[in-house]
Amino acid sequence: MQPYELSLTAAADAVRARKLSPVELVDSVLGRVEEVEPRLGAYVTITAERARGAAREAERDVVAGRLRGLLHGIPMGLKDLVDVAGMATAAGSRVRGEHRAERDGTVAARLAAAGAILVGKTHTHEFAYGLTTPQTSNAWGRDRVAGGSSGGSAVAVAAGAATFALGTDTGGSIRVPSALNGVVGLKPTYGLVSRHGVTSLSWSLDHVGPITRTVEDAALVLDVLAAHDPRDPASLAAPSADRRPGPGTDLTGLRVAVPDNYYFDHVAPEIESAVRHAIDHLESLGARLVEVEIPMARYIHATQWGLMVPEATAYHERTLRAVPELYQADVRILLEAGELMPAGDYLRAQRSRTLMRRAWARVLEDVDVIAAPTVPATAVKAGQSTLTWSDGTVEGVSDAYVRLSAPANITGVPSLSVPVGHDTAGLPIGMQLLGRPLGEAVLLRVGHAYEQTRPARELATA
What we know:
This protein is α/β, with parallel strands linked by helices. It is 38% helix and 16% strand. It has a domain at 7-250: Amidase signature (AS) domain (Amidase signature (AS) enzymes, Alpha-Beta Complex), CATH 3.90.1300. The chain has an eleven-stranded mixed β-sheet, with helices on both faces. Helix 7 (215-225) packs antiparallel against helix 15 (440-452).
């Protein structure tokens, strides 16, 4: 096994035990970047020399017994929305071509303090306003979409071109590309991870979180990221906690909710079969399955778009009027549509969210985890704009991909996407676990138990 193939946890253990040098690890990952980047296009910027210099420094610290944290010497990618001092944060757009960050965003600073090493900035759909990341190819098929908007981060991790990466999630943008590329994606509780120094799409829906190869890896990164930050108005004063799952896989007594509406409507048969099989596996580990009804399901789509569209337009108001020609057509159309939305619609969406949060809280009083598909279809071919379901219903690709992930953004509950197999075309399938606010430890425990008792996953080879 090459160092770039190691999970974060395995690599960190090897570095701490002095069985693997940070220099060897970073060189291996950079070699993998050189190999796959021409085919996949995960990165907008590669910081090879910076990474090698940081690896040499990390190696000196290891020899001297000065480990900086759990991520010491671990190579990572950051979505091109996260500020890093002296580097461009273009957000995938010509609008931001001249922007240079003066200081690190909070998450970048926390990762650096823990010893993580930046390999580069990963591609995002322009301003995170899309579900495909057209600059990047899927790690399992170059003719397939990567998913978005954190497509570059998910592809880099899936292909071994980063040991872990950060993404952002406003309507599914961590979980969607994670599911489509066969990796783990965690959207934490709203406010648990600071967004200071991260370009916003929709301030009341935005989240920052890790994309990793294993659930345990996600827990390691989350423990570094989660902390109160007074510079983020939504930041929670949550107590520090070790969320890493233990070695056990016994889920006896855990109540896993299986939705009888919404989450399995208009879902590809292979995805439904794989997810239901995974849920049955949780039952075999001791979990008790409970059928639940997802509340206010008919309002989810309208609420998500009713919040996101006007907030995004407000954020871009000045540049949209000054340089509209610099935006990609798909993003510009959405931003212009936001200018046509009445204030009353936005207020109704806010009220709907309040009612939805209350209703979801009641559901989660009686269960520990909700299990469902992450996305209703595997990665579509690049350029495909619609999906046609068996009953003749036609749905836009972006609407389809956001449909099952949006509830966690609206309500702010944590959501973890875990790979649960592949379809007959060899494309990955993801299962989504949702829990109570600040209930990440439970999600990680369940996801880890599933992962530990299923066949080991391999890196993508596209």
